Structures are given as C-alpha cells and as structure tokens.
Amino acid sequence: MxxxxxxxxxxxxxxxxxxxxxxxxxxxxxxxxxxxxxxxDPIKNDEKxxxxxxINNSSNSKTLRVLSKITGLNYFDCKKIIDENKTICTGxxxxxxxxxxxxxxxxxxxxxxxxxxYKI
Length: 120
Hints:
It is built from 3 helices and 6 strands. By secondary structure, the protein is an alpha+beta fold. The model has no long low-confidence stretch (mean pLDDT 90).
C-alpha cells in the first residue's frame, strides 16, 4: 500500500514492524502510525474449515432450542442431529466460535475436527 505525505506530497516510506503500521516521509519527516489489530488475534487469519458434531446428547427441549438457534433448523431436524450424532455446523474458527460458546455454556457435548486451538 502506498501513502503520500499530506504535508509535502512525497511518497512515504514503510517502516512498519510487527502489528505496528508506520509510514515516514523521507523529505519532511511527517509520519503516520496505527496498530493492526488483526495481527493480535490469530483466529481472524485461520482459514481452516472446522466441523462440529453432536456427541451423545439427550433430545430435551433446551438442547433442541440451542441447536435450532445455531443451525436454523426445526426441532425435528435438530432431534435427528442429536440422535445420529451428526454435524451441527461447519466453518472457519472466527465464524463458529459463537456457536461453540453457546454449546459449551448450555453443556451440550460436541467434538470438533480438526483440533480447535482457541479458547472457547
């Protein structure tokens, strides 16, 4: 990405390091700096697809309600997921993390593949 100095119009030089974005004008010394928050959270850059399956859950109303909220399916289809230990959801880590939190909070057993290395 190229930046032009607001003060003198010269193209700025990239002096960025790690998550810090820093550009300096070689002519007048004017600088701009910011912080790239995406480099802090590796979950945002994880492009692996994860599969979450139900594991030996009971088909009570609470579990059906939570699965219905996550999947968007009716209770009959959610009961099938539970009874057959089928897939609840799939997606990248950043897209399924909230579903995992709901499952964990509601004490619904699940397994995830591949290994999920982020705090739920």
